[in-house]
Specification:
It is built from 16 helices and 39 strands. By secondary structure, it is of the alpha+beta class. Its main location: nucleus.
């Protein structure tokens, strides 16, 4: 199967939508983003800093993609936000393009109050829900309904109600044995699914639209055990990353363990998420090709491909439904498929790995990031050392199941899956140790060690990783001990990664990709290596390592350029403009001063000499020989005196100046030579940049043409989608409408009839009982008054007409009938309630 190039039409709407649109506003109500006082309110609680190194990364700033910048105030436990605009949108007088923020800000306060130390805030892809996470707690807030709430003055507070993820059972600060959160990530293909990795080695996927307290999917990660006692400590999961828009990577989760090994879970899909139909159809066709029996094809390949095909057809039922209803293939260019809840009843997802790594391994690994560039899937791993390891996936990811471990399912009365729990284990038959899976480059001999079965898809072997480069950040030990290295990907240029640490922020740009179009027939020789560009420096060489950055976020302007907003521990804000075609030449300094060497290099060559020498020799007038008068001769006394005075003046004006220049040049010769070399290096660097810009001109033109073509395709897709029926809310069928009308009739008509009949019978029964009792009393009072033949009937009661006598047996039958009718009415009411509950549950499940 050929690898895909670029982003699918239906899978990448989140990146293009995450831009803030410029609105014509008054520039007087805005100021530069760096000068806004909201950043002075960002801080970390002192008790959190005094404890051991936190497990969760620190990031207290986030952007919703709509021009709103949010920061968390740990001291007041408030969430502040400002409106951010581009200078072009405000028509502001700015020398260079910059970001402006509103002078007045709003604040949100949670009710009940958050009872844990917040370490990270993250928005989902739609920018509606904000996840607020700490080591011991996690809440989610829907901020869109509250953004329009009025705020009278600066510091106005709006109360919002958060939803506590996991309830009080999973993450709690009060319990000594409560779980701790290692990482929180929103799923890239769902606005309501949140992935959480905890210290118990369980990866949980919560569907916040249905149940906040119970996880929709749980995967208990169980890696391999040590080969022998005391060989190395048991590996534990420390980080994870969701896959992207490339084949089976959409349903893949990459899990990083602390010893540097990488494992894979595939397939994992959020129930109710939407995917592009063309991508799913490509996977179905590939799996269907390998399910065909062949004499040269292994039975394992056929079995694995058949399981994958069955899973795709069960999860994405829209493919078969469209083909059955229309009898032709669906228009996948404008067709979205919803992932239905489905899990094999006799198999669990296999924990594939550890993936064999060609290259160096990250010792004491901490963070992992995933990006897809064209046809390449890239993984970046950072650890406690000042090095970032870059790996490329050498083969396609494939789904694998473990038949030995059936999953644990929770279903409703209609058989719909509500939650799934699986034990993700490594395959027992080929469970290699980490030392054998992490292969070094020096131990391999080209392609001789590659098995033929390994290159064949659907064999059950996990895809290997190719080490692209090891980027050394050259950070001091004090900087590394202050905070871990965090990684994130540029939202516009996927081959550009950013890493921020206690000393600042750097950019890593990939220069070579294994499966790109221009390198398919070229073997990797180690050149060109990824380039490292410093963007922000908060710790110059003369300063002590500061506290870690309190947060970094990326914002997109209407022109598609990225702006990085970082907050330091002192409350300073740094705004770095990152253009798609190039980065800034020099880093931005916030704390301390530039080193003297940089100042000297920028000053130039002539600043090494004194200012008096640069002004030239002294302005001493030298008298000339008079044209009139007695001529002077050399032998005369007057001539010798005149020559002596002339030589003295010339020596004072020129000879002494030349001597001073000679001494100055001799003493500063080394510095002059160094400055000349620096100037040559800078000239060479500028020439290289000019050549690189010239080479990138053609690629930029191609990208512009592709962007225009993509824009035209999107316009056509919008026109096609405007004629499609709603995907989420489907119209009811005739049978469903008839059944609903019957339920309404039973609810509003029969129910009232039963109640009225019950009331009438109850009144009649009471009246008959009272009359029978009164008749019995009157009969017992005058027993001699018996009716005889021929006698006239006498009314037994005063002033009342005679009533027929009702026997006790008839009364018992009447009472039993009334009780039976009451029981039937109660049963009917309960049945109606059950039908209503089942209808509401079915409608909620159909929306998934």
């Amino acid at each position: 199967m050929s690898r895909e190039r670029g982003r699918e039409d239906g899978d990448g709407g989140d990146r293009r939508s995450k831009t803030f649109r410029g609105r014509p506003e008054s520039a007087s109500r805005y100021e530069k983003l760096q000068s806004n006082e909201i950043f002075k309110r960002v801080c970390v609680q002192e008790e959190a800093e005094k404890t051991a190194r936190p497990r969760l990364g620190l990031n207290l700033v986030a952007s919703d993609g709509r021009g709103h910048l949010f920061v968390w105030d740990s001291r007041e436990k408030l969430l502040h936000y400002v409106d951010v605009q581009h200078s072009d949108s405000l028509n502001a007088d700015a020398d260079t393009p910059s970001l402006f923020a509103s002078k007045r800000f709003k604040s949100f306060k949670s009710s009940p109050e958050i009872d844990f130390n917040v370490r990270c805030i993250k928005f989902n892809r739609a920018g509606r829900s904000l996840a607020i996470a700490g080591d011991t707690g996690l809440v989610v807030v829907d901020l869109v309904p509250h953004l329009s709430a009025p705020s009278d003055s600066t510091g106005g507070v709006t109360v919002c109600r958060p939803s506590k993820v996991g309830g009080g059972k999973l993450f709690s600060k009060k319990s000594w044995n409560a779980l701790r959160i290692l990482q929180v990530e929103w799923h890239p293909y769902s606005d309501t699914h949140l992935g959480v990795l905890s210290t118990d080695g369980v990866l949980r996927l919560f569907d916040l639209s249905l149940d906040v307290e119970e996880a929709e999917q749980e995967y208990h990660l169980q890696a391999e055990l040590p080969s022998r006692p005391g060989s190395h400590p048991l590996a534990r999961a420390v980080s994870f990353a969701f896959g992207g828009e490339h084949l089976w990577d959409r349903f893949t989760v990459f899990i990083l363990f602390n010893n540097g090994s990488i494992y894979v879970l595939c397939p994992i899909v959020p129930f109710g998420s939407m995917f592009n139909g063309a991508a799913i159809d490509e996977l179905v066709k590939d799996a269907m090709h390998f399910t065909l029996p062949s004499s040269t094809r292994d039975s394992t390949v056929v079995r694995n491909a058949s399981l994958a095909l069955a899973w795709l057809e069960s999860v994405f039922t829209g493919l078969a439904a469209w083909s059955e209803s229309t009898g032709k293939e669906p228009p996948f260019s404008s067709f979205m498929l919803k992932a239905h809840a489905h899990v094999p009843l006799d198999a669990s997802v296999l924990l594939q790995g550890p993936l064999s790594i060609t290259g160096s391994v990250a010792k004491q690994a901490e963070n992992i990031a995933y990006t897809v560039v064209g046809s390449d899937s890239i993984l970046a791993v950072s650890g406690k050392l000042s090095c970032v390891h870059l790996y490329g996936v050498d083969d396609e990811m494939q789904p694998m199941w473990n038949v030995a471990n059936p999953p644990r399912l929770t279903v409703d009365d209609d058989g719909h899956i509500l939650s799934v729990g699986m034990l993700a284990q490594v395959a027992q038959q080929d469970q290699p140790s980490t030392s054998t899976a992490l292969i070094s480059v020096s131990n391999q001999d080209g392609d001789n060690g590659t098995d033929e079965d390994t290159s064949t898809p659907w064999t059950g072997q996990p895809a290997p990783l190719v080490g692209l480069a090891d980027v050394e950040l050259t950070l001091q030990e004090s900087v590394l001990s202050s905070a871990p290295i965090s990684l994130f990907v540029d939202p516009v240029v996927p081959e550009r990664l950013y890493c921020h640490h206690a000393a600042g922020m750097d950019a890593i740009i990939l220069q070579w990709l294994p499966f790109s179009d221009d390198s398919l027939n070229k073997r990797f020789t180690g050149d060109p290596l990824p380039s490292l560009v410093p963007l922000l420096d908060t710790c110059p060489s003369t300063c002590v390592a500061p506290s870690p950055l309190l947060g970094v976020t990326a914002m997109l302007d209407p022109l598609g350029e990225t702006w990085l907003v970082a907050i330091t521990s002192r409350g300073d804000c740094a705004v770095v403009e990152v253009k798609p075609q190039r980065l800034q030449a020099s880093p931005l300094y916030l704390e301390g001063a530039k080193p003297n060497d940089d100042e000297g290099a920028d000053a130039g060559v002539f600043q090494t000499m004194s200012r008096e020498l640069l002004l030239g020799p002294k302005d001493i007038p030298i008298p000339q020989i008079a044209s009139s008068g007695t001529p002077l001769t050399v032998d005369s006394i007057e001539g010798r005196a005149f020559l002596h005075d002339q030589c003295k003046l010339l020596h004072e004006k020129y000879i002494q100046y030349a001597h001073r220049v000679h001494v100055e040049l001799t003493s500063f010769g080394t510095r002059l030579h160094q400055n000349v070399e620096d100037q040559h290096k800078r000239l060479q660097l500028v020439q290289d940049q000019v050549k690189q810009a010239q080479r990138g001109t053609g690629a930029l033109g191609g990208r512009i043409e592709k962007a225009l073509e993509k824009t035209w395709q999107l316009e056509q897709r919008i026109k096609a989608c405007s004629n499609l029926p709603g995907l989420r809310h489907k119209p009811l069928t005739e049978a469903e409408l008839e059944f609903k009308s019957e339920l309404d009739a039973m609810r509003f008509q029969n129910h009232e009839i039963f109640r009225s009949v019950l009331d009438v019978l109850s009144d009649r029964c009471e009246r008959v009982l009272v009359e029978s009792q009164e008749y019995a009393k009157g009969f017992s009072a005058s027993p001699s008054r018996m009716f005889s033949p021929g006698t006239r009937k006498v009314t037994p009661y005063r002033g009342k007409p005679s009533s027929p006598v009702v026997s006790s047996s008839q009364m018992c039958h009447l009472k039993a009938a009334v009780e039976q009718l009451v029981g039937r009415v109660a049963t009917t009411i309960s049945n109606l309630d059950l039908v209503d509950d089942s209808m509401r549950q079915r409608e909620r499940l159909l929306d998934r």
